[in-house]
Structure formats: structure tokens, C-alpha cells
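Pasting two entries for a bug report.
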Amino acid sequence: MDRLIIAIDGPSGSGKSTVGKAVAQRLGYLYIDSGAVYRAVGLKALETNTPLDDIAAVTSLALKSKIKLEGDPDHLKVFLDGRDISDQIRLPGASHASSVVATIAEVREAVVEKLREMAQAGGVVMDGRDIGTKVFPDAQLKLFLDASLDVRARRRCDEERERGRDVTVAQIRAELEKRDRRDRERTATPLVRAFDAVFIDTSDLPLEGVIERALEIARTRS
């Protein structure tokens, strides 16, 4: 089989991350966690005492940093300039810094280039909201996962409760509605289905069914 670039997009709660990790695991592909790359940039800014609001300086850090991902989806290792930072990027400081640097357009462009470099040899899976339209517009396989708002709200509510958050389905539904509107209406890289993406409605499909459907499509593209 040819080693594909698989881009998975969709709104929150559609199952794209879970499906993406499972597909990568079964195909022996690298699962690219773009959030981890932004966290690495944020961590380096903290370690070098670079002001997070200094766009030029943070962008320079993002461009010069060597960031590498290795391992299976459930045990992904993140390396910054040859150093394993897998644990450090999950600390509150790095988490906050990543959320700040990720809003800088120039940093996002730098990170996109790094993500493309990681995928040059193929054999990668990445999910998000603009992967098939912005990050990997030439991906051999693009999937767009979606589900009804009510189904997504129930799924996300279950996830949040497992994390210990006391929430209701109605509360999560309102949060998702707001997130959907922001994702679809933003000027820069809005959430849209790429014209050549295969649409999968996950509303009434069990997780295993969605994974098998994605793998079946992947086999036809390789």
C-alpha cells in the first residue's frame, strides 16, 4: 500500500480525533497532533523568556525550532530541538502559552509548514477543522465527519463527565452551537468541507463502524 496523507475534518464531537488515532494505529501511520506543535512553540517561548505578545520574536522561534513527533497515537512523543518535551508541554504554563501563540497568524503559517514537512513521506493522519482545505489541500484522502448537534452534545457531555466536569447535555449543546458558529464564520480558514472530501455522518454509526468505513476508503486510495 502507498503511504497516504489522510486529512480528517469536522466539528467538535463528530469523532474525528478518536477515528484519526484509531486509523493511524491500524495503518501503522504517524498521528500528527498539531496542538502538540503549538505547545512546543509556547514552551520554547517560556523557556527563552520571549514575550508572548512579541509577534516577530515568537514567529522567529517557531521558524527556527526543530519539532518532531514520534510513536503511536496513544504514546506520542514530542521532541523540541532533540529534547523530549512530551511531559512539559502538558503543564499549565505551556498550555496557556500555546493558546496565545496559536492566535498569531505568522506562527500558524510557520506551524503549517512544519506539519507539511512531517507529512512529506506520507503515512500520516491528522485531524482538525482546516486540514483538508488549508494544511494538506493535496492529501490523497480527505474525510469530513459530522453528526447531528444533539448526538455531538451527548458524546461531548459523556467525555466531560468522565473528566470530572459537572455538566448537562443542554449546557454542552449551547457550547457546541457557539463553537460551530465561530468555526464556520471565522474569516481565516473557516470550517468547511473540502470539495473532494468524503462525507461520513457518524450520528447513527458506532465508533467501530466509522473506523472501518475510513479504513475501507483508505484501501481504495492506496
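Entry 2 (this is the one that rendered wrong in the viewer):
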Amino acid sequence: MMAAPSPNLTEADDDVVVRLEDIHKVYRMGTTQVHALAGVSLSFSRASFWAVMGPSGSGKSTMLNLLGCLDRPTGGRYLLGDQDVGLLDDDALSGIRLQRIGFIFQSFNLIPQLTVQENIELPLYYLGWNAADSALRATELAETVGLADRLAHRPTELSGGQRQRVAIARALSNSPDMLLVDEPTGNLDSATGVQIMEILVELNNQGGTIVMVTHETHVAGYAKQRLHLIDGRIDRVEDGG
């Protein structure tokens, strides 16, 4: 079902994880200005599952970077819960990334010298968890993604699908408000990709909020909502099948 290009921003506050209000992002390259996002207004509700789609240069990566507090908007407001992210300094943004956002990257971004358990525990180390609680949390998450028997292995000893599972477990370690996913099946064969998407669907069914960038229509089909960007603007929003 087709929805309006500018979704309703009047939902109850306790239902909204993220609210974008007239977001602009301009990159300056010498004397040239590139408008990567040009007036995006959108809210992401709790337990929603969004697929962000669009051609190269449409603003997908810019949106993910802004949502992940890896970049700041040039104009407009980004509200994460009741916090105006644009008003925070770099240290506060680092804290937001560590405590409230989970990242899953296409290239996994695991540390090869660390074991599966140590990779999963890494955010908890920076959050100040003690060793016993961290180990218990890592074990629970490894079981969730089907890697309970691989905790002592290193990334080089795992398949691509197993490495992506480790990345998912690591992203969940801090119980994030929002999970940001960049092309989760891009480096995987089709069968393994289906397994990874089924894990994400189950996490969403358990109440997780997911925003996923993908260029693959069949992958976007797992999401509940599909956001199409063109030239930094919302072209349309579709409900999932």
C-alpha cells in the first residue's frame, strides 16, 4: 500500500524512537555544494523495520550516518527519544553511539585478533561491564544467533554468514534503541542471506527497531516499511507486504 511522501509526525512520543524534522545535509567540495539530504521529515516508531532504498547518490548512506550519529545535519532537527542530537558535542555523540545504537556493516568490521566472544563483548568493555557479566551476555547472544559453539574462534576461522552473525550479536550487546544495518547480505550467498534476514525479522518481532539500507528488492521485502529516496528527498514510502 502506498503512503504519503511525508509520514505522520504526530505519533505518541513514547512510540517514536527517532524523529527527523526537515533534515538537510550539505557537503561542500571546494566551491561546489552537494545537497545529500534536502528536507527529510520522518519518524521511526518502536518495533518498526525500515528498508531505505534508492539509486546511488540518493542519500541512503548519508541518512544512515546521520541516524548513527556519525555525522551531523546541516539543518533541521534529529530527535533520538527526547534528545536533540544536533545540540550534542562529539563526546556526547560517542556516548549515544555506544549506549543507544547498534551497527551492522556489510564488511562485518570484526577485529581479527579477537575471538567471537571478545568481539561481542567489546562494546560492553567500553561501557564498563565486569568480566563475568560480559561473558554471560556474549554467551546469550551467541546462542541467539546460533554460534554458541564458536565463542573461542576468531573471525578468520568463520564463514561469511557466521561473521555476520557475530556482527549482529555485537550490535545487540548494548540493547540498543535502534539497529542500523548497511547492506546485510551484500557479501553473502543467497541461502546465507536468507538466514541473516530471518534473524533480523525475529529480532524485529521481539520488539527491535531496525533501519536497513539495501539496494536489493528481495531483501527490502523483509521490512515492514520501505523508504525510497531520490536526490536527497523522500520519493515515496510503502508498507511491506
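Dev reply: Rendering is fixed now. As a check, the viewer should reflect this: The longest helix spans residues 190-205.
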